[in-house]
Design brief:
alpha+beta, Serine Threonine Protein Phosphatase 5, Tetratricopeptide repeat, four-stranded antiparallel sheet, BACK
Amino acid sequence: MCSDFLIREISVENCMYIVNIAETYSLKNAKAAAQKFIRDNFLEFAESDQFMKLTFEQINELLIDDDLQLPSEIVAFQIAMKWLEFDQKRVKHAADLLSNIRFGTISAQDLVNYVQSVPRMMQDADCHKLLVDAMNYHLLPYHQNTLQSRRTRIRGGCRVLATVGGRPGLTEKSLSRDILYRDPENGWSKLTEMPAKSFNQCVAVMDGFLYVAGGEDQNDARNQAKHAVSNFCRYDPRFNTWIHLASMNHKRTHFSLSVFNGLLYAVGGRNAEGSLASLECYVPSTNQWQQKSPLEVARCCHASAVADGHVLVTGGYISNAYSRSVCAYDPARDSWQELPGLSTPRGWHCAVTLCDRMYVMGGSQVGPRGERVDVLTVECYSPATGQWSYAAPLLVGVSTAGASALHGRAYLVGGWNEGEKKYKKCIQCFNPELNEWTEDDELPEATVGVSCCTLSMPNSVTRESRASSVSSVPVSI
């Protein structure tokens, strides 16, 4: 009863007072509600008299919070400085308090303009180190993966479904450069554009960065492999910037790209010379691709996912035929081994890992009259048993679709339907707990050869799109 009353009465003027009362009398619900109110209204709260009365422990706890709602990290820095400068006795807390500011998420230019210009950041050795660390982070783009920390991670970010490139149905002869994202409240919007148009590319998300590799740079249905490219670039959703990275050793389309233990693995595919058996591994700290043990047999149009510390490669096109073959790459031993095969041969399909199991979905195979037909069957591999089982079948058959996992669900987006001979805009969502597929909302436009991933983006990005930039290096100081 008391908790309910306090929760109803929360305001900017009394929120901290309610936190203190709730703490004194162990009113957990009231305390949690008041703390959430402060997080959600922190900008307004920082202008109140109560804010200046916060103890170091209280403001420190607030600035640590990942869910603190602020327009930018510069504002968090300015609010922290405001509290420190209110009372000279607080100066001893400067380095400890400012260590909660995500300086790595502030652009190099803004670090110079808004942080370096503050005397304390230059005069206090510990505070200055925070600034230098952030400067070095921006100056060493290829080392950023190994330099990631709490101070480089966006605050209050939102995980969203994103689609990359493809060939839209309304402009069938034109490839897309667009990267779209789905805001939980406002639906699909354009996030940015890739450096170049792309189709059948592979994408991966690692250390908060989006990587885009290979694919085709021209639309030529008669000879897709001829237009395979080795391009490789990285997108940073915090700053809405691209950098061009070292190209793959081989041009590739219809291949797979997997993330494991801070490295990227590009497997198989094809180019103008034919199908590929090669495997190469990207090392971010050196910005180099390394050749690894190849597949036993060249394959393309397959799908891969990581499960139980291995890269599992499923199905695809081998020796001009759809395949059931499944093999596993062990990065620790740089070796391959055969696994039990799929029940249904397929190519141009997708694979997603959910709850330590790999789900293989979609694609096509050869029908009884030699025609290409959709595969509705979904198969699930358990590393614990080493066996395949069936999951609920797809609602709509699609090939060259995009797939990703988000919040414990698998999403299959867009693609080509053989039965209807049509591009699709449907989004199919799989719930592993219910073993059930449902139709989610749709893509803005029916698209094939599209890639899909899950990105963590700043709230400011999910509220409105920003102009993107393409460069060989990020903004430097």
